[in-house]
Amino acid sequence: MATLALALLLAPASALASSFAVEAATGARRPSLRPVDLAVRSIGYGLLTAFWFQFSWRPWLAAASCLLTVAILAAVDQLKRRIIGEPPVFSDLALLAQVPRHPELYYTRSLADPRTAGPLILGLAVVAAWYALEPTLLPEGTGPALAAVLALPLGLAAFVGLLRTSPGRSLVRRLFPRPDLTADVARFGIVATMMGYALRRRDETFEPPPLPPVLSPGEPEAELLVLVQLESFLNPVRIGGPPLPVMDRIRAEAAQYGRLAVPAHGAYTMRTEHAVLTGREPESLGFGRYDPYLAWKGDEPTSLARLAGTTGFATVFVHPFHRDFFDRARVFRRLGFDRLVMQEAFSQSPRIGPYIADEAVAERILAEVADGGRRFVFAVTMENHGPWTAGRLPGIEAGLAQYGHHAAGTGRAVERLIDGLKGRRATLCVFGDHAPSLPECRPRPEGPVATDYAVFRFPAPADRKPRRVDLTAGQLGCLLRGALAANKPGLKSQA
């Protein structure tokens, strides 16, 4: 009994010390040694250890599980900082269910791959052996054991409940007053920061945001607004790639074009998507900025689709990928889209590499607007989605060369849309969701690399000269609001 009691003391202490050592060795910044910061960090490790302990009642197994979890998070942290430029965040946990279904999108392998299945099976075997060898601390007797099994998860739930009370919320608010992910991870560690951010997001309340201002009035009575989010698109010349003919057409024919400051680098498409569709900057979302679809679930009064619906437009979302990804099918219904054209509609469409060709998406967009009705079409392409790895394209092995090949297809798709909409009263906007996650294009200390955007008005006045205006993704959403506001008196605001 004394040995078991000693293990109950030493195992959690070793979990805390070893977890701190792992994060100190791998983190982007030196960890804070302030007593308050260390206390919060220790609570995070302690809760994680207790979480694992409730499944086995074996203290050393729980301690090892805590250390393994922290080590995995530290490895993810290093990968994310190198590719995306930020540490893991609580909303990443909501994406875990997508990893086995779409491993290629997360730079992982399928569970059926021996390189994945082998370590998993070995890990399960080690846990089973450990489970058999380490004595349990469960009390003897069915009644006491059942009481203990129920008491621990109830105790953890009670602790979380305390943090949801008014004093608890106030404490969490003082520790995490605003999103500052890199600094908070250095202060409190990944585990405690993920917990704190999740609590802050859950307790945040916002008044419905006002309609953003219109930055530029639209052409009167436009019959079409076509908005296309181009996967990982920017001018390849900026990262050492080949020039695209479409960039010359943009500079010669667009009403407005420029660089687009986006909320993320190399991933998190939904952040840019949300900013453009709502006109809301990430700063206005609080802790929901990391995954706006998870936080708001499409309940957005400022959605362009909702505005388009009130002005008599049919609203269509086009995306040649799974309905379940980012929960888009449900979210986009709530954003105000009447009809969703998704993966099943592209079953016969050509693929370039692993994904549907952007030119096929352009043709589908033109088919959607061919009947002459008023349409707001928002499309999200997939052809240029990473990873750019050997074997993706026959005869093209280098990642940057693969990116350039796909970007050329994107350019042809944009040109097809320009030519196909010229005879209509229409606004066409194309923009990149984020920069590609290539070695030639890493995130910078000052923030994500900007993408490119362009807005075309058809028919274009003969005397109109294209102008370059650099915008944020939220400002682009406000500009597009102007293309719709001209169709409904009273919606225009002062810029």
From TrEMBL:
Domain Sulfatase N-terminal: start-end pairs: 225-440
GO molecular function: transferase activity
GO cellular component, one term: plasma membrane
InterPro entries: Alkaline_phosphatase_core_sf, OpgB/LTA_synthase_biosynth, Sulfatase_N
Compartments where located: Cell membrane
Signal is among the record's keywords: yes
Membrane-related topology note: Multi-pass membrane protein
Top-level division of the source organism's lineage: Bacteria
Keywords, alphabetical: Cell membrane, Membrane, Signal, Transferase, Transmembrane, Transmembrane helix
Transmembrane segment boundaries: 57-76, 116-133, 145-163
Pfam families (alphabetical): Sulfatase
Leader sequence residues: 1-17
Stated name of the protein: Phosphoglycerol transferase MdoB
